[in-house]
Structure formats: structure tokens, C-alpha cells
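Entry 14. Structure prediction run on the chain below.
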Amino acid sequence: MVHISEIARIFRGEYGRSVAVLVRVLGSIDAAEDAVQDAFAEAVARWPDDGLPPSPAGWIITTARNRAIDRFRREASGREKLVQAAILHSDEHSDEPEEVDTVEDNQLRLIFTCCHPAINRAAQVALTLKLLGGLTTAEIAHAFLVPEATMAQRLVRAKGKIRDARIPYRVPSGAELPERLKSVLAVVYLVFNEGYAASSGAGLVREDLCHEAVRLGRLIMELMPDEPEAKGLLALMLLLNARRDARTTPDGGLVLLADQDRSVWDKDQIAEGQLLVRQCLKRNQPGPYQLQAAINAVHSDAAQPASTDWRQILALYGQLLAMEPTPVVALNRAVALAEVEGPAAGLAAVDVLELGNYYLFHAVRADLLRRLGRNNEAVAAYREAQERTDNDAERDFLAARIRALTTTGPGPAAPTSDHPHGR
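Output returned:
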């Protein structure tokens, strides 16, 4: 007997594949989603007694396609052309599951449709999680701390944009592909960042978003195995995610990289991430995600903080800064510079950056001032950082640093915060 929870798990895993196929067949995202939901309802009614079909994925796609055709036939005659198109593409009520290669092609089309530049970035993230991740509107709204109604409107507007602007359901080709792929990877990394270091709320980490981003990263790498930056992004997320359990205390407090218990780092994720980094190095087509992955691979090589090869990290940040000369990359390079040449050199590199609204700028600056014994300035910088983060765990950590500085001395060095080395 099949339990409802098992059916729900299968549908969550197959949702993106099924919707991708049905969008091509039906020409409508909303119709595809409705059809997959109809198939889910039928599975809940039948599978507990009948058992799992030989190919659950094929069953979902075939049943959803057939339910959609039936629904269109029952609706107004103005839908006749759509019905005919559906029948033409589906070989009416065929029980043959979709070819695997076709499913993969459709998933790629859907990824690039969700991340089309005509759609704003917040909507790109929401659509990707909804259509490819199978997350409900309520789950996405909860993850990004907005009302469900707000997220629902965001999704409706994004799908309306796709429909009204006639955004093509295809994978871009030629000169258009690199920039579009960059947008796709950025969306997945935004999902991961929000899970790894939540921008607001009580908890530092949202495991569901980290998991979903890694799953999407695997999907993109599998669908585009010749794209080294896709491999680099997956490596980066795995190496960061490997540290997740060590990043917080039992009561949810933030633990810096230098203070983490490295014995609880996930060795399997580290091994997989390092293998992907080595494969990227052999390709010799470096990109920003590959370089960030290499930096975190160096961190993962160090059994103890003192054995970290900061010179290699500094060199890698130099390459990354040359490739992407942004202030946030320069800030991360300054952290590495402070470990190689001392906190004064790091502070000099930080003070020329225009990042006054970025809380990590003030947090890094405060730590360097603390290490130089300039406690009053450090306290002021920590307070600046406090004012610019909405995450409770980070605010509590900064408050503890302020208390320590106002009651004792500079204390031991804490070389780096454990945030993704993003841009």
C-alpha cells in the first residue's frame, strides 16, 4: 500500500519535469500546472490501492496530459484550437511516457523561460522555485517572508508577462546563451544565498532553500554538462553547504568559520565539491563560480583554521577581482589580505570601498579595527552593521561582540565571517 506522503514526495520530485513537458504540449503555464495538480489528485485516489505504476514519472505526464485534453473539451469552444494542438502533440490519450531526452529539453526550455531578462529578478526566483522546484506559493512566500497573497500576485504577474510578451519557450542559442545562462545560475545562487544566510528572520539558515538550490544546481549541470560555470556553481554550493551544521550553536547562534567544529563538516559534500573543482581546473575555462568554488575548496582542505592557505586564497581572489571588479569581491579579498599581510593592510583595502549600506562591510571593518586595538571605532562599526541586518542571529552575534569590547580587550582574531563569497 502506498502512503500519501510517498505520493507527495514523488510528485514534488517530478513536478518540474511534468510541468516542463505540459507547457510545450499545452502552450500555457497555468494549464500545465492545473493538469499536473489533476494528475496528483488522481494518484491520491488510485495509488494507495493500485500501488505505484511501473513508471511514476511517465504516469504523471500521461495522466496530466489526458486530463488537460478532457478539461479543454469541456470548456468553451474558443479553446478548440488549443485542444486540437494538444491532441496533435500528445498522440491523444497515449499511454507512452515522454522520451527522456525530450523531457530534459523541455526542462531546459522552462528554466530559460523562468529566467528571461524581461522578468524581474524577484519574479525569476519565485517562478523557478514554483515551476521547477514544485514549491507551493505558501512555501515560497514563507521562505522570503512576504504574505502569500503578495507572492501569488508576483507569480501571476510573471506568468502574465510570459504570455503577453510572447516570451519564447526555448533555449537561447549562439551569442545569446552565455548571458542568459549567467542569469539562470544567478537565480539559483540567490536561492542558495537566502537559505545559507537568511536576509531576515530568526534563523541564520533555511535548510529547505539550500536543499532546493543544490537540487536545481544538479539539474542544470546534468542538462548542460559542457558548461563549466554550471559545474562551478554546484561545487560552490556543496562546499558551503557542507559547513551548514557547524555554522550555528544548538540555540541558533552564529558561529564564524574560524570557530567551527570542522569534524562535523559534511565530508561527502566536500569530497564531491572538490572533485568538481578539479574537473573545472582541467577544463581551464575559469569563471566566477569556479573561482569561488576553488576558494572554498582551499578552506575545506584545512583541518584547522591555522593551516588555511591564505596566500592561495588571496591569489584566487585576485583572479576573481580581475574577472568581476565589484566592491563585494574586493571586500572578501581584503579579508584574505588581512590574513596574509595583517589587519592594517586589510583595513586600508576596506576603507576605500563604497559599501556603506552593506552590513558585512561594517562587520569586516569592525573586526579589523578590533584586531588593531581600536575598540571605540570597532564598537561604532559593529553598531553600523547591526543597523543594516534584519537577521536575528546576526544581530545577536554583533551585540555579543559589542559587549565583549566594552568590557574586555580586543580578544583573539576572528578572520572571516562564514558567508557565501558572493558578488
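DSSP finds 19 helices and two strands in the chain.
Filed with the rest of this week's runs.
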